[in-house]
Specification:
The chain has five helices and 26 strands. With 335 residues, the protein is of the alpha/beta class. The protein has three domains: 120 residues, Alpha-Beta Plaits (2-Layer Sandwich); 32 residues, no CATH class; 169 residues, Hexapeptide repeat proteins (UDP N-Acetylglucosamine Acyltransferase, domain 1, 3 Solenoid). A hairpin with a 5-residue loop joins strand 1 and strand 2.
Length: 335
Amino acid sequence: MKNFPLIGIGITTIGKAGATLDASFPYILFLNGESKLDKYFEKLNGLMENDLMQIDDPNLLDIDDGDFNSTLRNLGKNKVLVLCRMSENKPIKNIEEAYLKLHLISYKFFLPNSLNLENLFDNLVNVAWTNQGPVEINEIEKEILHSKKNNQPFEIKSVDKFPPLTDYIVPPGVRIADTRRVRLGAYLSEGTTVMHEGFVNFNAGTLGPAMIEGRISAGVVVGKNSDLGGGCSTMGTLSGGNNIKISIGENCLLGANSGLGIPIGDNCIIEAGLYITGGSKVTKFSQDNEPDSIVKASELAGKDNLLFIRNSQNGVIEARINPKSVALNETLHKN
């Protein structure tokens, strides 16, 4: 993992009303970093009087790298080159910092839940995400009419504060069947497969190879070699008063249409259709497979080797010792 201070070299999109709509950061430099551009950190840091700086002439950066210079020259008329510096992990002050922090997670420089995302929603702008980039909401109808008049393709992928991840970053070794269902700020490790019904929110993701056919809500992390079955759900922390960060350990399985409202450890299984919240009453079984006690599910948070099922005869939720080990199909995760 990386650390502060850092400087993002970004390209922002300016709307017709003059407001910044988004920011892409193809280059992020770290003090004492090991990438080929990190050696320029001190030079750029010396240029900056403030933490956010507009660069009118790319030559001012004086970076001797052909790929870098060709990327940042001849920007479009609504594009602006910026430097955004972060010295500490503080609350977000502007849209550029918001996008830079989302990039830091999706580049996997920082783990989910490790960055201060206070004020994130306040600084992001709700726009239409199209095949021609972000468009202001009040300009959408004009753009639609213009495209029809000129017979030009114009696709609105979503109307949201968060863009699709792959409009900015394509993580290596990952498959995403429907790219609209993974937001910028998602953390996807190599070997992850996100199927059509899978969804990954910002500040959430996978820590190793995983099969995702369900929902990874904001703040949720999934351990390596775990499988989230079709239509399953994990409880997030953005609304509803839940402040418990949900995590799924390694080698776990969430059955189809199941739900999880507590953290679970390694080698756990939740049967299909079973939704467990912290207050769910669970009959806990002993190592001898005998009923032991009745507890709240929250008391089993983080425990390894548990099999959660609902007794089909009396409807009681049971937590038994899990005798099985979940194994992903390696062929499906050679991405």
